[in-house]
Amino acid sequence: MDVRDKTIVVTGAGRGIGRALAVQLAREGAQLALFDTHAEDLQQTRGACGPATVRSYRCDVAQEASVTATFEQVVADFGRLDGLVNNAGIVRDALLIKVKDGRVTERMSLAQWQAVIDVNLTGVFLCGREAAAHMAALGHGGVIVNISSISRAGNIGQSNYTAAKAGVAALTVVWAKELARHRIRVGAVAPGFIRTPMVESMKPEALAKMMAPIPLGRLGEPQEIAHAVSFIFANELFTGRCLEVDAGLRM
Ligand code: NDP
Fold first, then answer.
1. Which domains does the chain have, with CATH numbers?
2. I want to staple 62 with a disulfide (CB 3.0 to 4.6 A). Which of 21, 118, 125, 171 is the partner?
3. Does pTM top 0.85 for this prediction?
4. Protein residue closest via CA to atom 8 of ligand 1
């Protein structure tokens, strides 16, 4: 897809990878509908997008009513919908159980599990469903890109996040098969560790430990993920696959 003058939704666009995605797609000439829960963060992303046509929407991707109403508003505002990047995500890391001196001292709580499933998996489902419904009704085809993670292979301390990100990769395959008849392509990107507020909030010792096994020896930059998303939009043969952009790291 040539993204010039196309309308693309980016979720979680307030900072981090989402902001880099918005800047990249704006530079390529897309019109953007940016979703996030924080209006001030969205303002900053809008500012970074330069003269492109950009509208921001406060939308919690985990809330069905919020997602449905916001997609309707986007189509009413722009008159079209051509793309979606399902990027919003959170972490609530914890071991499944913690044991000290033979006694179980901690468990991952249901709240930690549910919060991540709600945003990272249900949010992707809701936004993907609404985007697909509008694209199919409008009849011009489209592209959906889901942001998974290297953690989908199974990362210690991330039962919730791993389950969600593996689910996102699986949804990508299902949707590619189901939506091809509507000329909608669906791809995914699985980033490794990327320099964003999510990663920079880690303790320095934890960050150093995490970086030690990375073959390229560095964090990725948000723009490098935006570049991969841009490739999926551009390449008309790409669907049902997940691009790994992870500096060679294997979980
Ligand atoms: P950040 O935490 O920096 O940014 C995430 C954005 O998503 C924030 O603006 C956040 O807003 C928003 N968001 C969170 N919950 C919701 C919600 N319910 N509805 C709408 N927006 C929401 O994360 P990253 O940029 O690092 O991550 C972006 C994506 O990339 C995520 O899916 C993440 O899992 C994935 N990823 C990141 C990696 C990394 O190393 N950084 C590695 C692999 C994958 P708020 O202020 O409300 O929290």
1. 7-244 (3.40.50.720)
2. 118
3. yes
4. 12
